[in-house]
Specification:
The protein has 189 residues and is mainly α. 62% of the residues lie in helices and 0% in strands. It contains twelve helices and no strands.
Length: 189
């Protein structure tokens, strides 16, 4: 009912879903309000504080388009799926203040235990392109293959001798996709 409300312009039903006992309905209500153009900062702040990770994750996703809503606390959420989405949203927003926390999450040695969170943080650092995130991206080249691929792509946002040296090392990576990214970025035949 709430999902349909977002498609047919039924704002009262969409709004009522934000207080439904079911987390999936509350998460769907946020999307319905967004579709109706009625989602506001307050809705997202409440969603980010919801007891259900499903709602917090959806609020993070939608907050990508609401830079006035602080999603930094979600980068420290207990649920990895919320952290992953908060990292993605930070990258979408090019949220420079999040770079230190994204760098911490991305660390292969001491960062987030969930590889998807590390991968999302590396991608966000590449999307933001702040030089303060370069060290974490370079370190991510020592992580799992998917994260190394993401780090190689993220290097496109940075310049300098350390970046070129890292891309040259990627030419010898065990993973063919990491090698391919490096070849493309270095324009190697």
């Amino acid at each position: 009912m709430v999902a349909l409300a977002g498609h047919v312009g039924d704002l009262p039903t969409a709004r009522s879903g934000t207080t439904d006992p079911s987390p999936s309905v509350r998460a769907t209500a946020l999307g319905a309000l967004d579709r109706l153009g009625a989602l506001d900062d307050g809705d997202l702040r409440r969603g980010l504080e919801d007891e259900a990770s499903e709602v917090r994750r959806r609020a993070c996703e939608l907050a990508a388009g609401f830079p006035s809503v602080d999603i930094m606390p979600a980068l420290g959420d207990a649920d990895p799926s919320v952290v992953e989405m908060a990292a993605w949203a930070s990258g979408e927003r090019a949220d420079r203040p999040s770079v230190p926390e994204l760098s911490r999450i991305a660390s292969a040695s001491s960062g987030h235990p969930d590889p998807l969170c590390r991968e999302a943080a590396v991608a966000a650092l590449g999307a933001i392109g702040d030089p303060a995130g370069l060290t974490a991206v370079l370190e991510a080249l020592e992580d799992k293959p998917a994260i190394r691929r993401r780090a190689a792509v993220a290097l496109a946002a940075f310049d300098g001798p350390a970046v070129e040296a890292a891309l040259r090392r990627c030419l010898d990576d065990r993973d063919w996709q990491v090698r391919q990214v490096a070849e493309d970025l270095l324009a190697v035949e």
